[in-house]
Amino acid sequence: MPLKIMLITGSYPPMKCGVGAYTRRLVMALAELSDVRITVLTDERASGVADQEGVEVLPVIRGWRITELVRIAKHVQQSNPDIVHIQYPTQGYSGRTPILLPLLMRLLGKPCVQTWHEPMPRRVGLLLAIGLDVLIAVREQLISSLPKLIQKILRMTRVVWIPAASLLPTVVLNDEERLKIWHQYVSGNEILLSFYGFVAPLKGIEMLFEVVARTNARLLMVCDIREDDYYHKSLLDKITVMGIQSRVNIMGFLPDEQLATILAASDAVVFPFRDGAGAWNTSIDGAIAQGVFVLTTSYTVNGYNKEKNIYFVKPSAVEEMIAAIQRYAGYRIRPKPSMLEWQNIAEQHIGIYRKLICK
């Protein structure tokens, strides 16, 4: 009999969410394994996504209100999975329903696994821990930083660290292909910089504008910047005041393959986080996978990592950012396909699932 798994997530492509993208990569990897059947229960805003072999997507949840618990319970009972695996948090979740899902699974008698992608506030973590059989963390420090009360509640729960891999496909370009794309945006001795992801104050994008203003760089921003958002509007105003309109190209969100191609053709991908990059970051990992030079910030690491082709500067150290770009922009290493990594991640998950249902 195939192992039946239901994943519950508040976001799933085409919805824009890093955890939703992670869930899809996990689902794709799990579906490649034999004797596995997967159902994805998600938000109605993910409607239109095509099913793949071995995967059924149910985009049926409306707003994640408390009343939706009845709908969720109905779909769980109809699908009758061996394991329910919840992804938390996601941008699509709202209200209190998501934090009650483990308890609902306990009431339904379903083994429950949950993946945490961010540190949990104490009250939320306490509720999420009730009814949980296995907790998976994508970052090691999520486990070590758990409040003592949550650790006490989880003392009978298996806690596992499974780091993620790149959420983007790996694009391999030869020199001719790369230069053809590069020349669409820059010429001569100019430097092609890229940034992608959600736009928020913690991303430190103002420092990136400083780099553009003080170098011969052109910047591709693969992200949405909306004039109806106060912070976004302040960035647009800053571009105008600094006089760099002709050297900043705001492209909006792009399909993964197109985004990865732009990163692979760039001279550098820059993430000038205001508080430093975390130990694991989906955007940085996706850029590293393309073999392109990556520049980011950190309070704990400094300098160039040759193996990953990444340079760390202290947050707000614009002078060092400029020096690093001038020295390393254009450096490339062998692209790093993530297929084998995701296969390993899927196999670790299957091992957890099988061990849980054999208890």
What's this model, at a glance?
Helix content is 37%, strand content 19%. The radius of gyration is 22 Å and the shape is elongated. The protein contains 13 helices and 14 strands.
Characterization of the model:
This protein has 359 residues and is of the alpha/beta class. It contains 13 helices and 14 strands. The protein has helices spanning 18-31, 68-79, 97-108, 122-129, 140-144, 148-153, 175-182, 205-213, 230-242, 256-265, 282-288, 318-328, 339-357, and strands at 3-8, 36-43, 55-61, 83-88, 112-116, 134-137, 158-161, 191-196, 217-222, 248-250, 268-271, 294-297, 303-305, 310-313. A seven-stranded parallel sheet has the order 3-2-1-4-5-6-7, sandwiched between helices. Helix 2 (68-79) packs across helix 3 (97-108) and helix 8 (205-213) crosses helix 12 (318-328). The model has no long low-confidence stretch (mean pLDDT 93).
Q: Classify the helix fraction into a percent range.
A: 25-40%
Coarse shape = elongated
- Spatial arrangement of strands, main beta sheet: 3-2-1-4-5-6-7
Q: What radius of gyration results from the CA coordinates? A: 22 Å
Percentage of β-strand residues = 15-25%
Residue-averaged pLDDT, rounded?
93
Sketch the major β-sheet: 7 strands, parallel
Oligomer: single chain
Number of strands: 14
Order of helices and strands: EHEEHEHEHEHHEHEHEHEHEHEEEHH
Number of helices: 13
Q: Unreliable runs, pLDDT <50, ≥5 residues?
A: none
Distance between the termini: 18 Å
Sheet/helix structural class: alpha/beta
